[in-house]
Amino acid sequence: MNSSDQQMNSITYMEPKLYKAAAKGNINPFNDRLTTSLNELLTPKKNTILHVYLENQRRGSKSTDFVGQIIDMCPQLLLQANTKGETPLHFAARYGHSNAVKVLIDRAKKLAIDPENGPAEEKNMLRMTNEEQDTALHVAARNIQAQVVEILTKEDPEFSYSANVHGETPLYIAANMRFNWRFKRHEENRKKVIDEILSNCKSVEYCGSHGRTALHAAAMHGDHETTRKILKREKSLTRRTDDDGWSPLHYAAFSPLLNGFLTVRVLLKHDASAAYIVDSEKRTALHMAVVRGNLLAMGVIMIMCPASCELVDTRGWNALHYAATTIEGLVAIYFSRWIPKFEKLIYEKDNDGNTPLHLFAAFGNFPQRYLSSDWRHAYRNMCGLNKQNLSVDDILVGNFPEKKVIPSI
Q1: pTM of the prediction?
Q2: Residue 49 lies in domain
Q3: Mean pLDDT taken over the chain
Q4: 92 burial class (0-12, 13-18, 19+ CB within 10 angstroms)?
Q5: Domain holding 28: CATH number?
Q6: How confident is the model over 109-147, as pLDDT tens digits?
Q7: Which distant-in-sequence residues (6+ apart) come within 8 Å of 234 by Cβ?
Q8: DSSP secondary-structure letter at 147?
Q9: Residue 405: its pLDDT value, please?
Q10: Is 184 inside any structural domain?
Q11: Which of 200, 203, 202, 133 is nearest to 173 (CA)?
């Protein structure tokens, strides 16, 4: 026998007629086989006939006769996983077969073991993870299967669903789903997934990837409704920072979405101290709002936490320094005129002695147009000299060596 023949012999496959029967939910071909061998019928990915049935049913299919009958014939199939560690429950959760989920749980209860020696069989099944440490609830949340999430969370409310290998919990996965206005029904289901987890699980895990939490995810996407719901359960999340030192407020302020400022307001209403949290470069949420040119977020932060504008980053830059060096933030220079405390930042110098107006003058050709106007004359004189003894006027005529090496935001 040559190597190719050996390789062919090592491949696991299911007879085509049996595969087709399983896909259609036809139980007859399996009645003629020994029940002990049903769990040995496998595809190359080690999917059983139960996996095959579940992945080939139409979404919303209510027929569950095949599931119940095949498990009664071969109970081992209930918990048998494929090469990726996925059980039939993982498949039912992915494809939204809520009726099949109920049958799987019902059959697992009939196989229940002594509660004194360990969890019942259905609890084992609900808590089983695949190779990425996803439970069926992780899978249901990722595929926005609200009915399945409701069933799973009500069936095992005591269990705390921990993070998978990517650091994601079911709640984080749902909160991190992007809203698409063209699929309104998906958004409604996503919110229902979040509601079911928060309502039914007695102990909720909020962790996400890169040190973020579900609150970070909601804030990142400008989801003020989910932000409010999460804070109702756990207020301390406003002070949790990710691997870059960003708080949920940083993400809300940086969000380009219209709802971003609503999320900012919700976060500050629950915890005003969030406005004073700095990231790894000592930047606040106000810095982020200015970088985005997010006037609404800037306004909310300044009204609710006016003293936060005094904070500077590692370069000594305040919010207006950022405004002077970003295209989106230039409008903040003018916005500052309407908020007295914000306007005073124009005279504050960074570590190199530059005021925001020094940087504004150096940023490009168009500032020359604005700074040469009469109403800016007082500002130009009051900003003084930087550590190179350069005034705003000096910079306007091109005498600013740092102009080409201004650090990126």
Answers
A1: 0.86
A2: 1-123
A3: 85
A4: buried
A5: 1.25.40.20
A6: 888 654 454 556 678 899 999 999 999 999 999 999 999
A7: 204, 206, 215
A8: H
A9: 41
A10: no
A11: 133
